[in-house]
């Protein structure tokens, strides 16, 4: 006779818990992270990817808290995992928000503030230049294997901040709020050469208008500003990848730092 495989309810509950809690954190991060969390990506793909990752790493995570899944403590742990995954995904998305901010700054100086269209990923109107820089940033992110580094950092977060029913530390949320300031500083640093060049061009046209009032500066000002912005944007492109690589590294470090700060 063949041996009978017997599984107790306690073992089944432990297996389910070992899968569900990591799965929830991964699904929350995938839904909030760039590239993975875009609205163009189907929900089935996000859920399937999170499930495959949870199955792959669950055996290496060690013992889970002895809290039933269907209980007040189990629901509290689920909420914590959603918050942790969403916060980590949001911290790396701040890099792409800085790129979009740089596109907004540069587009405003180039006179492209009215050249906008509806962006499904953000749910609102986005400047053409901001959308262009965002797409370039995503391509660079994929080229440097940023998506794989995000998954690696997520797996490492389970060792830095293991699944538990202890409350999360407030220092982590304070760190996430301070990291949002990087959106404005990094966006301004990226757009600063273009903005400075266009400001110099506008000053030169203002001086020319004062020196020669009969010259219709408004008729030639917009074409010159647009042409100057395109030329400066062309000069900026070779330096975009090295700048974004540093920002991606900072965003990944912030993900791990956030997990450490949330540890009670």
Automatic annotation (TrEMBL):
What range does the record give for the signal peptide?
A: none
For membrane topology, the record states: Multi-pass membrane protein
Sorted UniProt keywords: Bacterial flagellum, Cell membrane, Cell projection, Cilium, Flagellum, Membrane, Transmembrane, Transmembrane helix
| InterPro entries found in the cross-reference section | FliR, T3SS_IM_R
**Where, by residue number, does the polypeptide cross the bilayer?**
12-35, 47-67, 73-96, 132-155, 175-203, 215-237
A cellular-component GO term for this protein: plasma membrane
Q: Record's Pfam families?
A: Bac_export_1
- GO terms under biological process: bacterial-type flagellum assembly; protein targeting
Q: Where in the cell is it found?
A: Cell membrane; Bacterial flagellum basal body
Q: What is its main location?
A: membrane
Task performed by this protein: Role in flagellar biosynthesis.
UniProt family annotation: Belongs to the FliR/MopE/SpaR family.
**Name of the featured protein:** Flagellar biosynthetic protein FliR
